[in-house]
User: Fold these one by one.
Assistant:
Number 1:
Amino acid sequence: MDKDFISIFDLSHVEIEAIVERAVALKRERNERRSQQSKRKGAQGLKARRDECIEKTLALIFEKPSTRTYVSFAVAITELGGNVLSLNWNEIQLGRDERIRETARVFSSYVDAVMIRAFRHATVAEFARYASIPVINGLTDFEHPCQILADMMTIKEYKQKFNGLTIAWFGDGNNVCNSLIGGAAITGMNIRIATPPGYEPDGGIVEKAKKMDCGEVLITADVEEAAADADVLYTDVWVSMGDEAEQEQRRKDLRNYQLNEDLIDCAAEDAIIMHCMPVHIGDEMTEAVMYSSNSVIFEQAENRLHAQKALLLHLWG
Ligand code: CP
Ligand code: NVA
């Protein structure tokens, strides 16, 4: 087991299955507790909120904004019985050019794990190299592995399996797409990526996934080819954090890659619709698709909480 979670490739198929299984159990227990709590209320209910009593401190460092990653990690560690420290890059000395390596050593003496959301993937990798505690990638320009863990959990809940399923991705071959390719390859799912030229996912990740020889990895410019009989339809923003200067060009280049009603008609009838959020309605996805009966977008967001609890327990052994 790696001490860090920097890339989805840090986990094996067996580890992903175990984390997903634990996350599903934690979700079930939490739902039971919450329904009991709403009946009982009061101090007794508060005590019953804790899953475990792990007495650890998790630091969250953000160089870019976040809603889901921030709140789900903060609630996860609190419900596990630990403490959270949420820090903006610019309120600590990192914002004044203190080096990553010294920061990593100092954090290692104070807290039990660090989650970092950074612009550059190399920042998180360097932090992990110099830290003696687990370091978690909370999104970089290259990968978003925590999102994919929650997505794997969501797929398992709806489809009861991974092997043999087909995921279709539409739009920008970005950080979420890179990690999704890894998640699919590790667990034996087929993955088809529909992007216009110039927006393909990372070539190294595609090659790595193909070498794993688990399922099909297809990169195409044809949205219908990707969507044909797919079990999972997934998209993400066209303008990721850090890409704002290219906004106009991206909206032009990606406009034929919208996840809309016509595309859904090409997929399997029971295909689930996924998006990591935040959603830009009218760009990558229509409102009708987002709120269609096949959409599992809000379950995906909720599952960040359960999957990350299971991840923390996994990393802390
Ligand atoms: N999906 C996701 O990571 O959302 P946030 O940017 O709100 O954390
Ligand atoms: N690709 C998006 C994901 C946001 C959760 C971004 O990096 O901004």
Note: Residues 66-69, 139, 147, 276-277 surround phosphoric acid mono(formamide)ester (ligand 1) (CB under 6 Å).
Number 2:
Amino acid sequence: MDVSIVVPLFNEDESLPELCAWIEKVVSDHQLSYEVILVDDGSTDDSWAFIENKSRENPHIKGIKFQRNYGKSAALNEGFKAAQGDVVITMDADMQDSPDEIPALRKMILDEGFDMVSGWKKKRYDNTLTKNLPSKLFNAVARANSGIQLHDFNCGLKAYKRKVVKSIEVYGEMHRYIPILAKGSGFRKIGEKVVEHRPRKYGVTKFGWQRFVNGFLDLATILFLGKFGKRPMQFFGLLGTVFFLIGLGSSIYLIIAKLVSVDFSLTNRPGFYIALTTMIIGMQLFLTGFMSELIARNAPERNSYLIESTAGL
Ligand code: UDP
Ligand code: MG
């Protein structure tokens, strides 16, 4: 199969008919063998009824439905599990992403050897103040921390080699940082293509202001997991040791000062309390490190690496 098109959707029944018709037109114009995987993330409108009808009429269009709303990341993750195409393309259901980009994205994966290509909404049709500015900030932080030179990490329109989507797990709100997940799994050839972005024609955006808070916290998680996920003690242990030593050093200094001079009052000095607290925090960080090692050691994916081999090894 040439291409799988994965579309996460939540209450998009107005857009779906046009979207499906458009995708069908593009793949038939380019004679691609394809599947469209519509992942209904617990819609409460008529999206699922449409998908059921549509998939009867065209067996290339397939549907997966969640019983309730789990989020875009979960929807993408299920779509990735089901995808069978050599190239997997994701796009939003609201027609802000154009299906016309599919052939060119597929070409970049096949002919230019990219593991994944991310769309870049260079000219964006969203509200400037609430979306475009914060998004610029996010992208700058993500770029600086991950070393991946993308302008638009969170673009819904992306293309992947099949093995990339099979080796990453998208959960929580991590759909914003899939390039970082891919890089973490060892896929380094990550490209970018300027794509056409369109104003939302039907329905409303599904993400409110919470996207900014959650987005930053998730970025912190992802960077931490990528670096220390398998060796948490090296992070917590180092931090704990530094804290403990600072606390211990200050305490020893205060004790000596007390021994040397009789009218030196320990309890009158803020430094005394700070030293104690620092030692306690140090110990706690150390113990957190041990706990994290125990958890990491029991994780089922502790030895999950993606391998290739010759002669069926
Ligand atoms: N979406 C989803 N589950 C959610 C929220 C959104 O599957 O909980 C889908 C939504 O239907 C759309 C895509 O994710 O296809 C992008 O959402 P939206 O257009 O609301 O985001 P924006 O373009 O405003 O960033
Ligand atoms: Mg949108």
Note: The chain has ten helices and seven strands.
Number 3:
Amino acid sequence: MEKLTRTDNVRVRFAPSPTGFPHIGNIRTALFNWLFAKRHGGKFIVRVEDTDQDRLVPGATDAVLAALDWLGIDWDEGPRVGGPFGPYLQSERLDIYQKLADDLVDRGLAYRCYCTEERLKEMREEQARSKERTGYDRLCRNLSQDERNRKEDEGGRSVIRFAVPKSGVTAVSDLIRGEVVWQNEVLDDFILIKSDGFPTYHMAVVTDDHLMEISHVMRAEEWLPSTPRHLQLHQALGFDPPQFAHLPMILGPDRSKLSKRHGATFVLDYRDQGFLHEALVNFLELVGWSLDDHTEIMTPSTVIENFGLERVNKAPAIFDYEKLTWMNGMYIRQLPEEDLADRIMPFLEDGLPKECLPVDRDYLLRIVPLIQERTKLLTDVAEMSEFFFQTDLDFDPQRLIQKGMDRQTALAALAACQTEISNAKIFEHEPLEAALRVAATGLELSPRQFFGTLRVAATGRDATPPLFETMEVLGRERVLDRIQQAISRLGDSD
Ligand code: GLU
């Protein structure tokens, strides 16, 4: 593992293509690169690979940057911040790629190809029919100078292809996967510059990894088959290639490719579903890497101090939405109450009925300790706490009558509650509970029955945070009012 020691002057990059919104896999790649840069005091660069003009999705770049912002993955060079190796949008670097590709043509290492779409289609069909290896048949590689001149004079569209060596092997010493070797004869003469003047991914990625002085390329495993092409191109251009590390695939718990049915796939959907960015980061750190064999909850500094490719797995990583939800609950429990209240606020504004708004922050701060333990997602809170905010509770009055009670005993229980609560010297949960227990005994009702009735009256629910703390937060007046309403509704409910 001598290669791993090259950790001075680390420069790594995250190179999203704005052809879709960022998903979990993209951001795991960004995160691992970022951690690696932090670990080695290096630079983390964001480069937008927008060379596939037909597939650009409006808003995709902004969504990628917003996802990085949300997760606290900051970058040293790239969009918005600039840097000494810019521009960081490939569409603004076309002349650089063109010049390098032209040089390769001049040196006989690349060539212009004039084949039309129709010809290539026929070629592919023929290859499929005769079960030959598919790929460009190198027709234009062998054109004479006269034939070339004629094609140029005809003025048809052309592309620049790389002349891949026809024999020999290309090998990469991948920092995660070890030595991987390809026979050059299986690599076809891939395109460097397309007919619209844009480079292909291969051309642009090699050029920019070199010019931006990238030391390590850490990317998804799906790019491993492209690596021999990149190495060939680095060599032809006289570049010293970076080191490569291909990160393991991410699968769902059923070991199929991660998709919507395993939970959200787009990163910002997790924010909208009420996940904390700290929890998602912690979770993603463990998708393919581990600190040791057991630690799940890790501080950012622990991860940065210990992050390394030695503990990145080769085997596919499993994305377990349930574990993420569990972890989110753990993080919610650890948050200071004020912070949690601030994070909950937008979800209440969004999730509570209009008449409950605006939410009073001080009131919310008193609710937070009652729900913090039980909250797994910030989106749970509106439903869980709605009764704290409602003016009128909507429930079937029959629910006030607990098992083994009738209407009269339920009414008697509510009347006793009214008396105790009105007479209580201070409205605090401990004395309140003590007084109400005595009242329950006086009526020969079990605490389960008596408090069940009271709970439904005060909250409209059968299950709530601890009843007496809840009532203390609701306040004496509101509780008395609700009990009065419950009595009237039960009285009228014949
Ligand atoms: N633009 C490629 C992507 O979106 C990046 C591949 C690479 O990192 O080389 O996945």
Note: Residues 15-17, 49, 205, 219, 223 surround glutamic acid (CB under 6 Å).
